[in-house]
Amino acid sequence: MPTVNAYAATSAKSPLGPQAIQRRELGPRDVLVEIKFCGICHSDIHTVRGEWGEATYPLVPGHEIAGIVTGVGAQVTKHAVGDRVGVGCMVDSCGDCSSCHRGEEQHCLKGFVGTYGATGKDGQLTQGGYATHIVVTEDFVLKIPEGLALDAAAPLLCAGITTYSPLRRWGAGPGKKVAIVGLGGLGHMAVKLARAMGAEVTVLSQSLSKKEDGLRLGAHHYHATQNPETFQKLAGTFDLIVNTVSAKIDLDAYLSLLALDGALVTVGAPPEPLSLNAFSLFMPRRIFTGSLIGGVAQTQEMLDFCAKHHIGADIEVIPASKINDAYERVLASDVRYRFVIDTSTLK
C-alpha cells in the first residue's frame, strides 16, 4: 500500500499535525490523484473535534480536492493521466438503490461513503484531502474544466455544490428573488451562483460590515438582520431563501420574508436543534427544507457552469503549517472566504 504525507488530527482536542498514511493499491477502476489544493470546510472542524459525533483517529480531513490524475486502473474509461480533476464529499455509494439510480448518490439509501471519517467498501477508514495523493473509484472523480484555476476550484467541490444544488432545485433564475443568509464560505458562493443564474440577489447578514464585498460578489441588495426594520421592510418578498450559517436563527422571522409558495432552504448545520411555529408555514403556504450536496452528475454540471461563467471561490492559499491557525480564523469568521491548502507544502 502506498504511503503518502498528510496532516491529521489524533484526537478531538489535539492540533492537527504531519502524519504518514496509507492509500490503497490502485484497483482496476481506481484513479490516483496527486492533490494540488484542498479547501478547508467548516465541516472539517466539526468532524475532527467530535462535534457531529464520535470520530476515529488519526483522521485526515478534507473534501474539497483539486489535483491531477497520475495513475489509472486497467478498466478506467472516464479519466486519463494528466487530467485536471476534483474529488468532493463522496468517494463511493452502493450504486444499486433507487437514489443512486436517479443520480442522487448523496442520498444513497445505504449511506454514501464520505471522503474522510467513513468506512469504505474495503472496511478501511477513509482519509481525506489534507494529503499529497488520494485513490478514488473513477465514478466519483470530477473533471475540472480548463479556465478554472485549481486552487479557486477546490472549494467548489463542497461549498459550490452545497449552494448550487438548492438554487437549481428551487428554480433560482430570471424573475426570481433570492436571499442568501450569511456571507461566508458557503454564502459567498451562493451569491455568485444565484447572480449568474439570473436571479435578483439579496444578502441578509447580521451587520453591514461585508456589504461592499456582497455587492462586489454580485448581490443587488444587502440588509442587516440585526436591524428589526429589515424583517418588516422585506416581509413577503422572496421566492427562495438559502440559509448558509451554522448557527441557530429565528426561523419564524426568516419564514416571514417568503412570498406565497416560497422556500427557506437550510444548508448550514448548527449543532443544536432548530424550532419553528407551524403557523409560519400555513398561511402563505411556505416551505422549510434542507439540502445536502448534489449527486455526481449535478456536481459536474456545477463545475461546467462555473467554468462557463468564470466563477471560482474567493480564497486565501496557506501552507499546511498554517492549518491550525486557519481553523481558529474560520471560527472567528476571519477569512474571505475560503482557506485552501497548498498540498505541495506537505512534501
Structure description:
The chain has 11 helices and 17 strands. It is an alpha/beta fold. Strands 3, 4, 5, 8, 9, 16 and 17 form a 7-stranded mixed beta sheet that branches. α8 links the parallel β13 and β14. It is globular, with a radius of gyration of 20 Å. The relative contact order is 0.16.
Beta-strand content:
25-35%
Shape: globular
Q: Any idea what the radius of gyration is?
A: 20 Å
Helicity range of the residues? 10-25%
Order of helices and strands: EEEHEEEHEEEHHEHEHEHEHEHEHEHE
Look at the structure and give the mean pLDDT. Answer: 96
Largest sheet: 7 strands, mixed
Oligomer: single chain
Look at the helices and sheets and give the structural class: alpha/beta
State the distance separating the first and last CA atoms. 18 Å
The residue ranges in which pLDDT falls below 50 over 5 or more consecutive positions are: none
User: What is the strand tally?
Assistant: 17
Q: Number of DSSP helices?
A: 11
Topology:
Layout: E1 3-8, E2 17-22, E3 30-39, H1 42-48, E4 65-72, E5 84-87, E6 90-92, H2 98-101, E7 113-114, E8 133-137, E9 142-143, H3 150-153, H4 159-169, E10 177-181, H5 185-197, E11 200-205, H6 211-217, E12 221-224, H7 228-233, E13 238-243, H8 251-255, E14 258-266, H9 279-282, E15 287-290, H10 296-308, E16 315-318, H11 323-331, E17 338-342
Parallel strand pairs: 10-11, 10-13, 11-12, 13-14, 14-15, 16-17
Antiparallel strand pairs: 1-2, 3-4, 3-8, 3-17, 4-5, 5-9, 6-7
